Amino acid sequence: MTLFSSHKLSLVALTCIGLLHPNAAASLHPQIPSVASFVNSGAPGFVLSTSTQVAVDSAFQSSGSPSLMSYAQTFRDDLISMTGFTVPEVKSLSMEDSASPSTIFMTLGATNHSYFNGEATEEGYDFTISSQSYIIKGSGANGAWWGTRTLLQQAAMSSVGSGSNGSITIPAGSGSDTPGWEIRGFMIDAARHWFEPSFLADMCIYASFFKLNSLHLHASDNLWDQNLISGPDWRELYSAFRFQPSEGSPIAGIILLPNETWSKENFTVLQSTCSAHGVAIIPEIDTPGHSLAITKWKPELMIPNTPDSLNLSHPDTIPTIKALWDEVLPWFSASEVSIGADEYDPALADAYISFVNEMSTYISSKSGKSIRAWGTNEPSSTASISKNVTIQHWDFPDSSVPVQLMQRGYRVINSEQQFLYLDGKTSDKGQFPVELDQALMWGGAPDGGGWAPNIFTRHDPHNNTDPSNPLLRGSIMAIWNDWGNNATTPLEIYYQLARSLAVFAEKVWAGSGVRETALTQDQFNSVYATLNAAAPGQNLNRAVPPQPNNVVFQYPTVAEPQTSAFDSVGPPYTLTFTIKPSNATEISVPLLDGTSMRVPYDGGVIFAGRDSKLHVQSLAFEDPATGIRYPLPYALPADEYTTVAIHATRSYTYAEIGGSVHWWTTDLDIWGEYMKPANMSFAAPSHFIRAEGFSGELHNVSLVLG
């Protein structure tokens, strides 16, 4: 008998012959999202160790996009990342081939997997676990990929308290799992805050661990300040179009921030990384509102006195929008894109509706892609949006009532803001929470049950629908950046999203009140921290391996520039040093011809890392992604010794100096109506010490976790 042949019996057959017991306690650990069904076999579990082999069914290795083999290779990388085991290269085997013990085998052919609406899906998977093998059978390659996330999460939970014998045991049995909805995504407002592609790629990888399958990338927009937008200085408002046109492109003039754009090459890498982890990028170019980036380039296209809205009656407006899409549509691999199309003057409803329909037809003819648009209640008695357009509901009453839209035949995505909106760090008078409201997510339905994609309001059950509604496609949660680059660092955005994504992932996979196996809030809370720390393929926590006495590094004196082994260390930490800056106001800089010149000197950079720099001048932290500096209300005295202790958490950073406490903060312009201070959190700049041009003495340097 070969290794795999003993697992060809179905779950029903095994139950009938007594090998599995229908009432046996499910002994998988709780995980995020929950598994739809599992029956414990009572047999010895699967031992994951350095001898484990990952194998792919040769009959299906090229199936899917990404292929089953590609997913297996990424999974192997994740397995190494999570466990530290030396895992051999992925093998291609047939079901009849013999294999070594401790084999993870990925294949296809699982049947009867469908979403809650009954639509068949390739995202489902069955799995069978014995002492010798862990077999994942997907209904498609994506389903097999999600099955590997279950394996990794079980490995992470099984390793807790497992001792140091170099192996991890996962309970034996058989299970089956399918997501409840097709669309399970998150939106990042990358238009009003710049993000490097590497950060967005890491966010995809993290979200994939919790089986989210799309990143909606809001890539064009502007800040809002009523005083500026309606006055002569409207061009001063920050705006961005993030896709960098090719050289000589007819749309090249739209780019005013070339250092804050994604080239086709680096966007392709980002997109490929996300795709390799089962996450599709849905790009959004938001028009005809939120279009200041376009009107700065072509002011003749704006509605008079409303520079962030395009005049759809101008003969060059729609050709200009089409030219933007012509440039970038070939970049995108997803089958859908978003044209935004929210918050436009309702008095221009007919022009708006005509525009949305024209763009739907145009983008489909150019690329075969369909479009999404934000739900906008545009009153018209003569026109209606094409039912080829998916409506992304976001608000009552600004958006049409989603239940009524579905009754009229529209496909709908739930992004209702009362449940699913976050805003970078702080928001207007507490409008949105720092992270998703746990009380709403676990008990925000009208009947007191938890939120799910079929829940649009907690007040009126008539505005909600059934999980099986065939026109309800799923849900996307959103983090906006209304306050711009200076409001947050990229890692602060991750801190806001990390837990929220996991809670959201449970709800869009399992729903609320649909499956008995869905997580309770207590179960979620019991496993989240472990799974967050274990999520492979990225290190957004900027965690470091355990250090003796939690000391990352310690140097009595740093007389010359040097590096540590860590490019960044996440909070909480304490960075302590004694510094005596030079009193020089100029320094000599060598030139290429062998001469030198004197230039002004601001003290240089003391520490630098992947996510932050610490300057001598005003002890300012710098975010390297945006170049923005956050000064401390303190100036180091020159030619004097000063001891500084920097304490950081995910919510704030402060310095103790000479018995006084000083906080790093930022000032947020709230809609141009008032200013609001907010604390800043910085990862430790841990890679370079005496980093850039620092002149002076540096002693008693230490970085301690906690």
Give structural notes.
The chain is α/β, with parallel strands linked by helices. It has three domains: 5-177, Chitobiase, domain 2 (2-Layer Sandwich), CATH 3.30.379; 183-534, Alpha-Beta Barrel (TIM Barrel); 548-705, Jelly Rolls (Sandwich). It has an eight-stranded parallel β-barrel with strand order 10-11-14-17-18-19-20-22. It has a seven-stranded mixed sheet with strand order 1-9-6-7-5-3-4, with helices on one face. A six-stranded antiparallel sheet has the order 23-38-25-32-33-34, with no helix packed on it. Helix 2 runs parallel beside helix 3 (141-159), helix 4 (197-209) runs parallel beside helix 6 and helix 8 (317-328) runs parallel beside helix 9. One of its GO terms (molecular function) is beta-N-acetylhexosaminidase activity. This is beta-N-acetylhexosaminidase.
List the helices and strands and how they pair.
Blueprint (H helix, E strand, L loop, with lengths): L10 H6 L20 E4 L5 E3 L4 E5 L10 H16 L7 E3 L9 E6 L16 E5 L3 E6 L2 H19 L8 E3 L2 E5 L5 E7 L7 H13 L4 E5 L1 E3 L3 H4 L9 E3 L22 H13 L3 E8 L4 H6 L4 E2 L2 E5 L6 H12 L7 E5 L8 H19 L2 E5 L15 E4 L8 H6 L4 E3 L2 H4 E3 L14 H6 L28 E9 L9 H21 L10 H14 L16 E7 L4 E2 L9 E9 L4 E5 L5 E5 L4 E4 L4 E3 L5 E3 L4 E3 L11 E7 L4 E5 L2 E4 L1 E6 L3 E6 L8 E5 L3 E10 L1
Parallel strand pairs: 3-4, 3-5, 5-7, 10-11, 10-22, 11-14, 14-17, 17-18, 18-19, 19-20, 20-22, 21-22
Antiparallel strand pairs: 1-9, 2-8, 6-7, 6-9, 12-13, 15-16, 23-38, 24-37, 25-32, 25-38, 26-27, 28-29, 28-37, 29-30, 30-31, 32-33, 33-34, 35-36
Helix pairs in contact: 2-3, 4-6, 4-13, 8-9
GO molecular function: beta-N-acetylhexosaminidase activity
Protein name: beta-N-acetylhexosaminidase
EC number: 3.2.1.52
